[in-house]
Amino acid sequence: AEKTRQIKEERDLFISGAVTIFKWKNAPGWPVEYVSGNVQALMGVTPEDFLEGREAFAAMVHPDDVARVSQEVAENSQGGKVHFIHKPYRIRHKDGSIRWIYDSTKILRNQQGEITFYFGYLIDITEQKNQEQAYNRLNEELNLIFGLSQNPIAITDLESNFLQVNPAYAHLTGYSTEELKKLSVASLLDTESQGRFTTLLQDVTTMGSISQCKERFLTKAGQGVPMSLSVSLLPSRDKLLFIATDISEETALTLQLQQRIDEEVTKRMENEKIFHAIFDYAGIGIDVTTITGDILENNPKLQQMLGYTHEELHDLNIEDITHAEDLTKAAANLRNLVGGGQESFVLEQRYLTKSGGIVWVKATVTSVKNRFGEVQYLITMLDDLTEQKRLEAEKRDKDELLHQQSKMAAMGEMIGAIGHQWSQPLNTISLLVQDIEDAYQYGDLNAAYLDKFVKRSLDQISFMANTIDDFKDFFKPSKTKHLFEVNEAIDTIIEMTDQQYISHRVEIHKSYTAHPTRTLGHPNEFKHVILNILNNARDAIEERRLKANDPDIRGNVYITTQVRHGQVCVTIEDDAGGIPEEVLPTIFNAYISTKGDKGTGIGLSMSKTMIEKNMEGTLTAANGKRGAVFTITLKEAV
C-alpha cells in the first residue's frame, strides 16, 4: 500500500509539472490513447476531448509545421530507433494563441519490431522561443546597421586584430574585408600614433571604459587619413568595438573644436566634469540660483562682467544685482517659470556692477527640475549687450540729428515759401502807404479814402496771417497715426509752395485717381516727404538749365496717384534728365547728395525713414523716360 501511495504521489507530481505526456497509437492522425491532466494548460482542451475523439492532436499542430512533424516521425520510425527529439514546432491553443513545443518522443514496438505506440513528452518553450526570435531580430538589425553604417566599424580581439569589419572600414582603408582580417588596427597607424594607441588599448581592456582618440591611419596606398577613433570593451570582455570617423576634410580649428566637444561629451557620460568645463570657460556669464534668487554658482565671465569675485556673488541674491526698474518684469517671468507655465524665458534687462555701473544683458533663464517635476534650480545665461545698446543709442541720436537737420532744411524751404507768399501783399501794402502821401497832397485824403485804405490793408494782412497758420500746421509734430487723404495732403503742399514753382517756371501736372486715397499715418511727415521730392525736382530742373546754358527751359513735374491691390501709390516724375546711374543705388543714404555743396544729403534719407519706418510703406527711386521717378506706396485704409 505504501509503495502504491508513493507511486501515485510521484505520478501526480509529474503530470502536474511542466511536462505534458501523450500516448499516441501508430495510426493515421495519431489517435490519443492517454494524455496527462496538465494538457489543458498547454493546449486549452481537456484529456476527455482527446480520448473521446472531439479533438485530434494532428489538427492542433500549426498548418505550416504539420508536414515537417509528420516527416520527422516517419524518418525516425525507421532503423529500429527507440527515441528521437523533434525540432521545435507550433501548436494552436484553443484560445487562438500559438505555443512553441519541445517534443521528446519515445517509440514502443511489439515482439515483431512493429511500432505500436509513441510516447511524447511535451514542454511549452514559447517564452524561450519568443526571446530567441527577439534576439535574432535584434541581431539582424545590428548586422544591418553594421553593414549600412557610413562610419567605419570593426570588431577586434584584445590585441586589435580584425575579426569583423564593415564595408565602410574597407572603403576607408583601401583594403578588402578579407585583407583586413589579416591585419590589426595598430598595423594601420603611423609611427607617431603607435605609442598612444598601445596605452589606449591598455586603458580600455583594464578599466573597460570607452576611450576616444584622434590618430592618423595609413591606407593601402600609403596615404595618411586623420581619424577620430572610439574604442570600447564588449560585454564578453574578449573583444573590442572600434568606431572610426574620417575628419580629413575639417579645418584645423574645426578639428580642435570637434575634439574638445567629443572629449567633453564623453566625460559628461562618465561624470560631471563636463559641466564645470563649460561653466568655467564659457564666453557668456552663467549663474545658478535657487528659485528665490540666492546665487549658488557663478562663472568667471559673470565675475568679469560685474566686477565681483566668486565669493562676493555667492553671498548675493539676484535682486541685489538687478536694476530696480527691471525687477518687476523679471519677477513676473520667474513666477511663471517656477509655476510650470513655461520651461524657459528670455528677456533684456540691466545688471548693476560692483562699481555702480550698468551692464545690459540678454538673460536666458532655464529651470532645472527634480524627478517629481518640481523646479529646483534656475540656470541663467547672460549675453553682454552693453556695446550693442551703446551703438543703438548712437544710431538713435544720429537718426534724431538727421531728422532735426531735415526739419531745419524744410523750415528753410517753408520760410522761402512764406517769403514768396508774402511778397505780393507786402508790395500792395507798400503801394497803399505810398498813396496816402499823394492823396494828402492832392486833397483826396478823406473819410471814404481812409475806410478804403483800412479795408484793403486788412485784407492783405489777413491773407498773410492765414499763410502763417497754414505753415504752422505743417510743423506740428505728429506722433499718433491719423487717417488722411493722400490727394488732399499733396494739394496742401502744392498750394503752400506754388508761388516758388511759378517763379522758377516749373509747372506741376496732377493726375489723381477718383478712388478715395485714405491711409493711416502721419500726414505732416507725408507732406514733408512730398515737399522734399518736389524741391529736388525743382533744383534738378534748375541744374538742367545751367548745364544747357538756357534759362528759358521750362520745367515740368508730373504727380500721379492710384489705388491698386489695397495700396495707395504716388509717383512723382520730373523732366530733368534723371539721376546719375552711379548715384542711384545710394540715393537714400545719409549725406549722399547730387547737388554738390548746395545739398545736405539728408532729405531723401529722412524721407525714406518717414515712409518705411514710421508709416510702414515703401519709397523707391528710378529713372524714367523724362527724368527721375519717385514712387511712394502706402497701405490703403478701408
How does this structure look, described?
The chain is of the alpha+beta class and 638 residues long. Helices cover 45% and strands 25% of the residues. The protein contains 19 helices and 23 strands. Strands 1, 2, 3, 4, 5 and 6 form a six-stranded antiparallel sheet that branches. A five-stranded antiparallel sheet has the order 8-7-11-10-9, with helices on both faces. Helix 10 (252-270) crosses helix 11, helix 15 packs across helix 17 (486-503) and helix 18 (523-548) packs antiparallel against helix 19 (603-614). It is elongated. The mean pLDDT is 82.
Write a concise synopsis of the structure shown.
It is built from 19 helices and 23 strands.
List the helices and strands and how they pair.
Blueprint: H1 2-15, E1 19-25, E2 32-35, H2 39-43, H3 47-51, H4 57-60, H5 63-76, E3 83-85, E4 89-92, E5 98-109, E6 115-124, H6 126-148, E7 153-156, E8 162-165, H7 167-173, H8 177-180, H9 191-207, E9 211-218, E10 224-233, E11 240-246, H10 252-270, H11 273-281, E12 285-289, E13 295-298, H12 300-306, H13 310-314, H14 327-338, E14 344-352, E15 358-369, E16 375-384, H15 386-441, H16 447-474, E17 482-485, H17 486-503, E18 506-511, E19 518-521, H18 523-548, E20 555-564, E21 567-574, H19 603-614, E22 618-623, E23 628-635
Helix pairs in contact: 10-11, 15-16, 15-17, 17-18, 18-19
